[in-house]
Amino acid sequence: MPNAAMPFSGNKEPSSPSDAVSPLSLPLNTKPGATVAATSAATTLSEAPTEKTRSSSVEALEVPEATSTSSGLNLASDEPDQLMDLSGPSWTWPNNDRELGALVKSLGAKLVPQPAKGAAVLQSKANGVQNMGQGQGPAGPGAYRIEGGAGSLCKRLIEAHKLDVRLLSRVETIEIEADANVVRVSTRGGPVFCASAVVLAVPPRSIAADIGFFPALGDERRKVFQNTQTWMADAGKFCLLFEDKFWQKAGLSGTVFANGLPAPQVWDNSDGAQAALAGFVFGSANLRHLDSESAFAASPLLTQLEQVFGPRVRSYQGLELCAWDRHFPADESASGGNHDYGSSLLQAPHAQRIFFGSTETTPDEHGHMEGAVQAGIRTSQQVLALLRGTPRK
Fold this sequence. Notes:
CATH topology of the largest domain: FAD/NAD(P)-binding domain
Pfam families: Amino_oxidase
Helix content: 10-25%
Distance between the termini: 35 Å
Protein name: monoamine oxidase
Number of domains: 2
Structural class: alpha+beta
Strand order of the largest sheet: 8-7-17-18-19-16-20
Number of helices: 11
CATH superfamily of the largest domain: FAD/NAD(P)-binding domain
Domain Amine oxidase: 142-384
EC number: 1.4.3.4
């Protein structure tokens, strides 16, 4: 199970507590929105003033990331000519997502409208394929995607602010040395980072399952964390590349809503000149269809797509698969869990120096990139309030 933490100043272990500078550490996590939250928090902190009267004490930022990618599950293909967005929170609604919109604009990124030209279809075993009419997109009216994929936003943030992201650095324990005002972040088989504060952009349930805390989280907080369901932890995504949008020539938008079939939602995932179809699957049985290309080819997914788009759908030129249950505790895919996101215990710091900033901590926009950015802004403000009262070493 990947996890991540962001220490501020992120120095490696000092020879003594007095050697530690005031650092900040931001652990990331491979889940939708987590990297956006962490890098958003880091961005705000990296821009904070440092003069004595308004000191943030942020001298450096370290971002340990448990996986091999800096964009978490805001994924996109690494191939420059294959702009396949594999992220969960692909869509944004500019009229609603104010903080994300401001971030996109500040980074010079572009939004592209979700293709909706043509007919959407309703698919079921009982009734086959039914035309739903024109102009119905997969995410409602006014939906856009980030050009180059949602993962490109994380990469822009990292490059713009020269964030030090340590890949394959799984955070195992976080310990507060109360007398020295130092937080020690230990990674598996790696360095120990020392920080003045830590932001965990990790789903609450993963925090409770994967990271040891000293002092302990406490029974009430741990129970809330364990019962807060990770957004779309039991979901996965596939994306197929084609030479052209052949479905549009047949009068279809690419949008499919399905009942009782492996992929309940399919859409036109094209970006720029690249034609693509993508879809979600849910549940452990269906997610195993995404374990490999051979598993996908032998699954009922292609048969389902062929019923809508015809045999041409089997002639894809590229395929990307991502099953998110591979990244979360074994019980994540179980139904149940608390849907009361944004609990005060998800937003309040632990022991004054450990802050929680995944998208699940936001009350209204949880699960979306807007919620991740909001969480990043909130935690950065909390950290700055703490550090302004912390004497510089």
